[in-house]
Amino acid sequence: MSLVGKKAPLFNAPAVINGEEIVENFSLEEFVGKKEVMFFFYPKDFTFVCPTEIHAFQEKLAEFEKRGVQVVGASCDTEETHLAWLMTDRDKGGIAGVTYPLVADSSKTVANNYGVLAGDWNYNDEGQLVFEGAPVAYRGTFFIDKTGVVRHETINDLPLGRNIDEMLRIVDAWQHVEKHGEVCPANWEEGKDAMQATRDGVSSYLASH
């Protein structure tokens, strides 16, 4: 079930912040009323596609910050594994230089609450509790507004890396809506015409295009 239009599930979990410091009780609640949040899940530390996405978010971090958006990543790895990966040089498969928070969801409850866990616990024929599927998170991305409500989500399967520029476009579109009270048509980008959410507004937009 989609979280769009609903309050983002809150949590308290360990995280690594500033690329070097472990905190035990990180929460998105600290940003409510202050910043929008781009919260993304990735499957696993020390893998192949994941670091390309993590570095891509870092490379665009100044663009998110310019828009007042906090980037936060998460996986089902431990905070110690996050820290070890952050301490590993990029040319050795690491993510050294990443400064935004990485949440450690080793209990898998955060991924489960956001609907991105790639498997689930179940009982087999012998009555034993087993995990079916992959005990990692899909590539879920959630844009959360300042009130803590999810305004956009995408969930990619494990092999499919996401487009970070599209995440910035979503931010621009939402902030345009908030500022101008207009709605954004297909393929809208910053600087393009938007639309009034009325029949006359739609008609005038279509007539000019």
Give the topology.
Layout: E1 13-17, E2 21-26, E3 36-41, H1 49-59, H2 61-66, E4 69-75, H3 79-86, E5 102-104, H4 109-113, E6 117-123, E7 129-137, E8 139-144, E9 150-156, H5 164-180, H6 199-208
Parallel strand pairs: 3-4, 4-5
Antiparallel strand pairs: 1-2, 1-5, 3-8, 6-7, 8-9
Organism: Marinoscillum luteum
InterPro entries: AhpC/TSA, Peroxiredoxin, Peroxiredoxin_AhpC-typ, Peroxiredoxin_C, Thioredoxin-like_sf, Thioredoxin_domain
Protein name: Thioredoxin peroxidase
What does this structure look like?
With 209 residues, this protein is α+β, with helices and mostly antiparallel strands. The protein has two domains: 13-162, Glutaredoxin (3-Layer(aba) Sandwich); 163-209, no CATH class. Helices cover 27% and strands 27% of the residues. The chain has helices at residues 49-59, 61-66, 79-86, 109-113, 164-180, 199-208; strands at residues 13-17, 21-26, 36-41, 69-75, 102-104, 117-123, 129-137, 139-144, 150-156. The strands form two sheets. It has a seven-stranded mixed β-sheet. Strands 6-7 form a two-stranded antiparallel ribbon. It is globular, with a radius of gyration of 19 Å. The chain starts with 12 loop residues before the first strand and ends with a helix.
